[in-house]
Design brief:
Blueprint (H helix, E strand, L loop, with lengths): L3 E17 L8 E19 L9 E3 L2 E2 L3 H9 L4 E7 L9 H16 L6 H15 L5 H7 L3 E5 L7 E4 L5 E8 L3 H6 L3 H16 L3 H14 L5 H12 L3 E5 L3 E6 L2 H4 L5 E4 L6 E2 L1
Helix pairs in contact: 1-2, 1-3, 2-3, 2-4, 3-4, 6-7
Family: Belongs to the GHMP kinase family. PoK subfamily.
Keywords: ATP-binding, Coenzyme A biosynthesis, Kinase, Nucleotide-binding, Transferase
Protein name: Pantoate kinase
Length: 279
């Protein structure tokens, strides 16, 4: 056992998805596809110092309420303090809560010598996020890395993943927040129908351009586009680039230099070649 451990988890922006709820949180999840990002979340877990008044979780140095992290600590029976750091926008579709949960699972497993495998830790974090209502597919994608395609929903025992064999520069701009919990708690039938069609398109041609086109079609058919997002996607298209909406947030992401060419001042990163890891 050790006093502290740190994990890094890539961000994840979803291009499209279909929701697949289940009473068992390890079976519940989503099908879809997205990009994992070199911009991510660094999570440090330390043994609790006995100060009952100290916050359990801090994000960017401030006390934070991240329910999936609390659930992971409870599941692993880990009395700990968690410090999470990220430059990613919060509530904007980058999988920060899933990354925090997965990073906590990896680091707490090391600190408290729980002896769990990677798949077991992914299952703990995935279940915690599903139960919290903050996501359905980020954790399994962030564990894999690259450009993951979620063919079947659920934690590793139940889900099935593939991927697009490519790497890319990624640009993004964020105009505001959307509540993942509110969207997932509502009627997701229209959204899921569009997601199933998008997945079928991508499976038939698993390339980055097809992913971007399928993502744009999904955003339109799922009726999730806002005015600002629509305008930015159109601007990128007019400049000869490829862009779509990040799920679920008022975020536009582009591959290559699409947003820059369209006159925006985006944050720039890249697809992450690997999944979550201890540092």
């Amino acid at each position: 056992m050790t006093e502290a451990a740190t994990a890094f988890v890539p961000g994840h922006v979803t291009g499209f998805f279909s929701a697949h709820p289940d009473e068992d949180p390890t079976v519940a999840g989503s099908r879809g596809a997205g990009l994992t990002l070199t911009d991510g979340v660094t999570v440090t877990v330390r043994r609790a110092d006995g100060d009952a008044d100290a916050p359990v979780v801090r994000l960017g140095g401030s006390a934070a309420d991240i329910d999936p992290v609390d659930r992971v600590l409870d599941t692993l029976r880990a009395p700990a303090r968690v410090e999470a750091e990220t430059d990613l926008p919060l509530g904007a579709g980058f999988g920060v809560s899933g990354a925090a949960a997965l990073g906590t699972a990896f680091a707490a497993n090391a600190v408290f010598d729980r002896g769990l495998s990677e798949n077991e830790l992914v299952t703990v974090a995935h279940g915690a996020e599903v139960l919290s209502g903050t996501g359905l597919g980020d954790v399994v994608a962030q564990a894999r890395g690259g450009i993951p395609i979620r063919l079947e929903p659920g934690a590793p025992e139940h889900g099935k993943l593939d991927g697009i064999p490519a790497r890319a520069r990624v640009e993004y701009v964020t105009f505001g927040e959307l509540s993942t919990a509110d969207v997932l708690a509502g009627d997701t039938e229209t959204l899921s129908t569009a997601g199933r069609e998008a997945l079928s398109t991508l499976v038939g041609d698993p390339t980055l351009p097809t992913f971007m086109r399928a993502s744009r079609t999904f955003a339109r058919e799922a009726d999730l586009l806002t005015e600002q997002v629509t305008e930015a996607i159109r601007d990128v298209s007019d400049a000869g680039g490829e862009a779509s909406m990040g799920m679920l947030g008022e975020t536009v992401f582009a591959v290559g230099t699409g947003l820059t060419d369209a006159g925006y001042d985006p944050t720039v990163c890249a697809t992450h070649p690997a999944g979550a890891t201890l540092r």
